[in-house]
Structure formats: structure tokens, C-alpha cells
Here is the input.
Amino acid sequence: MVSPFRNIIRGEVGELFRLGVPIVVGQLGIIIMSLADTMMVGWYGTKELGAAAFVNNLFNLVIIFAVGFSYGITPIVGALFGRKERSAIGGVLRNALCLNCMMSLVLMSVMGILYLNLHRLGQPVELIALMRPYFLVLLFSLPFTMIFNAFKQFAEGITDTKTPMYILLCGNMLNIVLNWMLIYGHGLPELGLLGAGVATLISRVMMVVIFALIFALRKGYLPFREGFLQSKINRQSLSELNRMGLPIALQMGMETSSFSLATIIVGWIGTSALAAHQIMNTVGQLGFMLYYGMAAAVAVRVSNFYGRGEVDNLRHSARSGFYIILVMAAFVSVGMLIFRESIGGLFTDNEEVIALVSAIVIPFVVYQVGDGLQCNYANALRGISDVKPLTLFAFIAYFVISLPAGYLFGIELDMGLVGVWLSFPLGLTTAGVLYYLRFRYRTRRLL
Here is the structure.
């Protein structure tokens, strides 16, 4: 006889797969686009790859912050959806779009200051001229990224995870085609690294246009569209969205800082280390995107249960999500170990870079469980709207532990790139344990 608990777990696994697989597929599309970007730029030139490595890692920090900020939409929309308050959801989306546009202007200002000081960051002088135009194009694409994020989190909050997936896949395909045309000059001017940036900008604009048209025309969105048109921008809604989004953005921003700010340390080691770091960051996103895709489904399910007051079910949902992520982590780790000697060769023919990529696969594998743990329970906390502690926990894990350890191992102990990467498992695992303990504490209090 199968216990009721096992039935709940099995049913929840099925629901998480239904919601999570489209998100994961969309995330894989992002990975494929990132891989294609890096491969195409890498085969164009090693200097271009090094310049792309530095700029992309700086922008990854901003993009992840922007994504995290928009994640505050999901628990609000998910709880309303659980209570079947369709019209109110449209009002949330209207205010979310406004708030995301305002935040994009703030982020553009911060990155503009950084742009003016690129030459002060201790990077190889020969790369600065390549970095500047590429940096500017990515800067102008930020508002479109944040508008798309708002639409995406709205759709996922109402359990429509397929629409964002299809739009992401189409946008990524467009980006790859435009890369081929603009980097190498096939039918369009040969722009090299700048061409990769222009392709990214065009694809991000098109994804926003497509999502806006779908929202305006799809019949299934009619109740939300009516709420959108009838609502007004109001301080209370903006404040609630900011209260939810900012702690998540800071948490994810600090996490990404352990990788992106480590790029500055890697730049002190040398151009080859910087190129290898970029390659492994690109490939390493595979695990993170898979885990976060499934964890996003956990956030949706937990928020729906939270809106209905079903605490037992939301706990089971979080646990089931972590089981799925553990299986994903095992597959990712085995695949990376099998192909560790040939990964670098996909991006460059530089033997030193290829050897460095192979060396840092080991610390990458070590942190997979910790990465999965922190993804799952950060999103579970998001689902129950308990996001304020995330900022403190992330600060401890990434700024107190991970970044100082990267400098200590990589520079002071002269372990080079491998030393920098050995710091990542420390930060990610610490974060995962802290998030899990907080979720367990809060759900016990809810019970």
C-alpha cells in the first residue's frame, strides 16, 4: 500500500516537471546563446575573447541583479493566482513594468560610471579598446532585459511557463544568426566583438515586442489585461514589489559577485586565465540555469500553496524540488568530468587556455550540490515571501567567505585560477545551508 505522503510527493514531482521543464528549456536556450557567443568570439580572436570575458562578467552581475529584482513579482502573482484574483494580477504587472523601468535607469547609471573607469581596473591595456564599444551596446540593452523579466515573472506566476520559453528560444536563435552575420561579416558589416553586442541588443528588443503583443492579443490573458488597463500606478503596489524584489536582487547579485568580481582577481593573473575563466563561467552556467529553472517552478508552486494556506503541501513541494535538482546535479557533474579535457577546445585552440579550463572543472563539480541547495531553498523562501534574510545570508556566504577566500587562494597562496575557483564551493554551500535552515524554521512557525 502506497502511503499518502508518497502520493503527494509523486504528484508534486509531476507538477514541478510540468511547470519546471519549460523554464529549464528556456534557461538552456540562454546557455546555448551564451555558448554560441563565447565560441564565435573565441574563434574570432583570443583578445576579443578576453575582452568579452571581462565585460560579460561585469554585466552578468547586473543582469542577475535585474532578474532577482523581477523575481519579487512571482510570489505576489502566485499568491493572487492561488486565490483566483485575476484582475489584481494585471495591476501588479502594470506596476512591475513601471518599477523595472525605473530600476533599469538606476543600473544604467551605475554601469555608466563603471564604463568611465574601465582603464582603472587593472586589466590588460590591449583589451580596453575592444571592451568600450561592446560595453556601451550591452548597456543600452538593459531596459529591454528588465521589461522582458517583468512579463516573464508574471507569466510564470500564473503557471504559464511555456510562453516565456518559446519567446526565449526564438530570441536566442535570432541572436545566434545575427552573431554569425555581424561578427564575421556574412551579409552584414564585419564588426567582431561589437557585432556580438549588437546582435544581443536586437534580440532583446524583439523579445519584448513579441511578449507585449502576446499579452495584448491572447484571449487567455483577457482577465489580466482588463486588470492591467483598469489599474493605476500606485505607491503601495510599487512599495510591495520593491520590498519583495530588492532583497532577492541583492542576494542573487552577491552570489554572482563571487564569480563576476572574481574576474578582476583573475585579470591580475593574466589574459589566458581570463579567457579560461570566461569559458568555464559560460559552461558552468549550465548547472546553475538548470537548477534555477526547476527552483523557479518550486517558487511558483510554493507561492500558490502559500496563497491557499496549505503549509504541508508547500513543504513537500520544496523537498520534491530539491530531489529533482540533486538528480540534475549528478548528471551535470558526470558529464563535465567525462569531457573535461575537451571543453576548452570548443572555444579556442590556445593550449594554455584549454589546460586551465580542464583544471577548474574539479572545483566546479565540487560545488554542484551546494549550488542546487541554495537555488532550491532561496526560491522556496521567495515562495513564502520571506526574502529579507536572504540579503544577510548572501553577504556572509559570498562577501565574508567566498571573495576573500578567492583572493587568498589565488593571489596570496599563488594557486592561480584554480585557487580562485576553489573559493566558490565554500560560498555556495554556506548559502545553501543557511537558506535551508531558514525555510525549515519559517515553515515550522507557519504550522
